[in-house]
Every structure is written in C-alpha cells, then in structure tokens.
Design brief:
This protein has three helices and five strands, in the order H-H-H-E-E-E-E-E. The chain is of the alpha+beta class.
Length: 142
Amino acid sequence: MQVTSVSSATQAAAIGAAKVVTPTAGNALDSAQFMQILMAQLTHQNPLEPMNNNEMMSQFSQLNSLQELRDIHTAMDKVSASNQVNYYASLIGKTVKATRADGKVLEGVVDGVLTEKDNPQVLIGSETVNLTDVTEIMGAKV
C-alpha cells in the first residue's frame, strides 16, 4: 500500500477521522478490517493519482491467500492435536520406564493418559508421570 504525504489541514482532519486499525501480534488483520482500510484508502486517495486497478486486485489476492493460509494452519493444528491424542492412547497397556526430576525411576504399565494442555501425563498405577520424563517404552506385557 502506497502512502503519500498529506498537504493540507483539511485532508489531515479527514484522514484522522477515519478509523485507524493497527494489527498487533495478538490480533491479526481480518477481512472486515482490510475492507475498512481499503475504503479509507479509496475515499482519501489523490484524485490526480488514483489507485491502480492492478494494485487493488493484488491486495485482494493477498488477502485471499492470507485467509487460505490461516485455514490451512487451523486444519493442521487440528490434525496435529488428533495425532497426539492417538499417540497417547497407543501408550495404554505398554510398559514404560520414567525418570523423574528428583531422580526416582518408575517402571510400570500405563493405565491411562492425562492430556492437560502442554503437559501430557501417563498414569502408572497410582502415580502420574510427565510424558517428557518417559525414557523407555516397551511392548505390552503378555
């Protein structure tokens, strides 16, 4: 997007009256905000140098591509979460060995899995162990 200098106080007041939308790391620019910015840009453009049609179509294409990438990212997050749950479930019935932070080594059959956010844990008997502490996974004991 090309930005030109403002040459008069009237233009500055008109531009200042337009709603300013600034994306930050926490809130991404969505299509409604993009349209607000585009409309403000079209409303306040220099009549002697109007926006090029190719430039406008390029901006619409970029917005569409961005939305598609967001959709793909969301779908990949869902697939990743599903794969993690499947992996955790595959541990049930297997014998694992875990070394805790205090140095205690625990070995036993996984009875269940707790999938707390960012801290998956396995249940070995009455003990819970962080999945990151598991050092060995063996097949199910017959």
